[in-house]
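thought: user wants a sequence for this fold. calling inverse folding tool.
action: design(structure=
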């Protein structure tokens, strides 16, 4: 029994070592990755549930690592937050995304997708960084993009118990016309009463709600919960976006429940900007 236990420990140790080495390796490679141009952005369309038109896209960062290939954000965003690289990386993502939005807006002039908006994720570290407002203003001005073309996504957990100092930069951005979305809504300890205090204009319902709409008809209790959130959101003048829509049945139920915008594999996986051109132009042609 002892040797078996020993073996188990050896295996566990080997796995822990491998994880530590990878983590260590990634952490070491991270600071230069930005200089070396190893990050790239994929865009996932945001679709209006009422008419199916593409209204915007969420920017999702990836790392093309020279040895490990393409790494998703879950692999390196926590490391970037830990090492502080998230601030310059986040600024880079914002700059690229705003530039992309300008390009799309020019391209789609005169089509239903012309007012296309770009959603960019903000990490909690960026929220507390003093340069956030100024950087954002400078990037929008440099690209000649109106603030209302930009939506910054902040997770609900980042704002739990947020004091006024933390909310101040978000409030300033919101006053300028930048939309603030509450990301992953419903996953944390949701304080619905708290919503009124936050400068948010969009709720992004977490994928777990969408998953519960997989069967048709969905569980009546889940339907009631989503219905309740949507009606509360609308009564507070918040738009509702749902993420993780994978089937037409989900899209239809969420549309009936009054959700405004949807995002998910049913419409498109995250992809290069050209992919959005195809989707947006496809729905612009009668
Ligand atoms: P998120 O903001 O909740 O982004 C949505 C995630 O769901 C993305 O994962 C997307 O690829 C995935 N997804 C989209 N549609 C579907 C679907 O229909 N089904 C399923 N199963 N998944 C779907 P991704 O790209 O791996 O990003 C993970 C997280 O990394 C994001 O979660 C976001 O929190 C973070 N992230 C991504 N880019 C950035 C960034 O530039 N800055 C910061 N701070 N965080 C980022
Ligand atoms: Ca997001
Ligand atoms: Ca989300
Ligand atoms: Ca999520």
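)
observation: tool returned 286 residues.
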């Amino acid at each position: 029994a002892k040797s078996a236990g020993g073996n188990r420990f050896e295996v566990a140790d080997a796995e822990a070592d491998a994880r530590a080495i990878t983590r260590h390796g990634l952490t070491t490679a991270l600071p230069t990755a930005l200089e070396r141009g190893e990050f790239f952005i994929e865009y996932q369309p945001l679709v209006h549930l009422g008419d199916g038109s593409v209204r915007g896209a969420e920017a999702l960062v990836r790392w093309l690592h020279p040895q490990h290939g393409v790494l998703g954000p879950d692999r390196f965003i926590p490391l970037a937050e830990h090492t502080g690289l998230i601030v310059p990386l986040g600024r880079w993502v914002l700059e690229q995304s705003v530039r992309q939005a300008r390009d799309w807006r020019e391209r789609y002039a005169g089509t239903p997708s012309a007012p296309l908006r770009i959603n960019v994720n903000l990490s909690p570290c960026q929220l507390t960084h003093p340069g956030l407002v100024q950087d954002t203003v400078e990037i929008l001005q440099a690209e000649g993009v109106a603030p209302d073309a930009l939506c910054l996504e902040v997770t609900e957990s980042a704002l739990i118990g947020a004091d006024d100092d933390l909310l101040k930069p978000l409030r300033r951005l919101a006053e300028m016309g930048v939309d603030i979305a509450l990301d992953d809504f419903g996953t944390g300890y949701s304080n619905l009463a708290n919503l009124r205090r936050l400068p948010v204009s969009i709720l992004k319902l977490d994928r777990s709600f969408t998953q519960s709409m997989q069967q048709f008809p969905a569980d009546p209790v889940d339907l009631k919960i989503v219905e309740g959130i949507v009606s509360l959101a609308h009564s507070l003048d918040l738009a509702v976006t749902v993420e993780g829509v994978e089937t037409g049945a989900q899209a239809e139920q969420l549309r009936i429940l009054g959700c405004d915008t949807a995002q998910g594999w049913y419409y498109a996986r995250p992809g290069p900007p050209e992919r959005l051109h195809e989707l947006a132009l496809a729905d612009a042609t009668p």
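thought: summarizing for user.
answer: Here is the designed sequence. The pocket of calcium ion (ligand 4) is lined by residues 184, 206-207 (CB under 6 Å).
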